[in-house]
Write a structure and sequence with these properties.
Layout: H1 7-19, H2 30-79, H3 85-92, H4 94-97, H5 102-107, E1 111-118, E2 125-132, E3 142-149, E4 155-159, H6 170-178, H7 183-188, H8 192-196, H9 206-215, H10 220-223, H11 225-231, H12 234-287
Antiparallel strand pairs: 1-2, 2-3, 3-4
Length: 288
C-alpha cells in the first residue's frame, strides 16, 4: 500500500526521525515534513490493522474449514456412486489434463477419492490424498503429497513413495516413450507422477495449487464440462458450422456443374462447326 511519498523521500524521513539530523530533511518545508510524519504514523496504524485482520481471517477460515468438512465427506461418499468421476474431472481440467499421460489416465480410472486436508494452522501447510482401489499399477491404497514449512521456515514438500507392481512402473514407461536418455529430459516432461515426486520448488507448485484451490472446492464443474458446453450453445455453434460447410459444398458442386455445362456447350459448338465445313466442302465438290 502506497503512503503517498517516493521511496527516496521516505528514506530521508526515516533518517531524520532516527537521528534528528535536520540536514537530512532540507528538501521539505516545515509543513510538508509534518504531513509526511503524520502519513507515516497513519501507515503504521494501517499496517497494525492489516496484521490483526490477517489473524482474525485465519480464525474464521479455520472455523469454516471445520464446518465444510462434513459436506466434503458427504460429497465424496456420493461421488463413489458415479463411475469414473475423478478421471473425467481430471481429463476435463485444462491444467491437469495438460500433464496427463495416456497410461496415467488409465490409472486414474482406479481413483476413488480425492481429498485435501488443511492443517489446523492453515499457514503451516496442507496435504493432498489420492485414494485408489486395487489396481494393476501399484500396491499403495493412498498416495499423498504434503506441503509444509521446513525447519528453516521455508516451504517444503514430501510425498508417498509409489510401490510399483512388476512391469507397470508408469514413470519408467513414460521415460521410455519420451525417448530421453537422461534424467534432465525426463524431468522437463512433467506428468502427474513426476509431479508427485517433484519437490524442487514447493513454493511454486502450480499443480498442487490448482488441485487445492480449483479442483477440490468444486470438481462437479469439471465433470460436467461437456454438458455445460451444450447448455451454453457450443453444440449449436458446431451444428451451424456444419450447415455452413454443407452450403459451401453445394455451392462448389453447382459451380462444377456449370463448368461442365459450359464445356459441353463448347463441344457442341465445335461439332456444329465441323458439320458446316463438311457441308461446304460437299457443295464445292458438287459445283465442280
Amino acid at each position: 500500500m502506497s503512503n503517498g511519498a517516493t521511496p527516496k523521500k521516505i528514506k530521508k524521513l526515516e533518517v531524520a526521525g532516527a537521528s534528528g539530523d535536520a540536514d537530512e530533511s532540507r528538501d521539505y518545508d516545515a509543513e510538508t515534513q509534518k504531513a509526511l510524519e503524520e502519513i507515516d504514523a497513519c501507515q503504521n496504524e494501517i499496517d497494525a490493522l492489516n496484521e490483526k485482520a490477517s489473524e482474525e481471517i485465519l480464525v474464521v477460515e479455520q472455523k469454516y474449514n471445520k464446518l465444510r468438512k462434513p459436506y466434503f465427506d458427504k460429497r465424496n461418499d456420493i461421488i463413489k456412486r458415479i463411475p469414473n468421476f475423478w478421471v473425467t474431472a481430471f481429463v476435463n481440467h485444462p491444467q491437469i489434463s495438460a500433464i496427463l499421460d495416456e497410461d496415467e489416465e488409465d490409472c486414474l480410472h482406479y481413483l476413488t477419492k480425492l481429498e485435501v486436508e488443511e492443517f489446523d494452522d492453515i499457514k503451516s501447510g496442507y496435504r493432498i490424498n489420492f485414494n485408489f482401489e486395487e489396481n494393476p499399477y501399484f500396491e499403495n491404497d493412498v498416495l499423498t503429497k504434503e506441503f509444509h514449512l521446513g525447519s528453516s521456515g521455508d516451504p517444503a514438500s514430501q510425498s508417498t513413495s509409489v510401490r510399483w507392481k512388476e512391469g507397470n512402473d508408469l514413470s519408467k514407461k513414460i521415460k521410455d516413450k519420451s525417448g530421453g536418455k537422461g534424467r534432465k529430459r525426463f524431468l522437463e516432461q512433467k506428468t502427474l507422477f513426476s509431479w508427485l515426486s517433484d519437490h524442487a520448488d514447493p513454493s511454486a507448485d502450480d499443480i498442487a495449487e490448482v488441485i487445492k484451490d480449483d479442483m477440490w472446492p468444486n470438481p462437479l464443474q469439471y465433470y460436467l464440462v461437456p454438458d455445460i458446453e451444450v447448455e451454453n450453445g457450443v453444440e449449436g455453434e458446431d451444428d451451424g458450422s456444419e450447415d455452413e460447410d454443407d452450403a459451401d459444398l453445394a455451392e462448389v458442386e453447382e459451380e462444377e456443374e456449370d463448368i461442365e455445362g459450359e464445356e459441353g456447350g463448347d463441344d457442341n459448338l465445335a461439332e456444329e462447326d465441323d458439320e458446316d465445313v463438311a457441308e461446304q466442302e460437299d457443295d464445292e465438290g458438287g459445283d465442280d
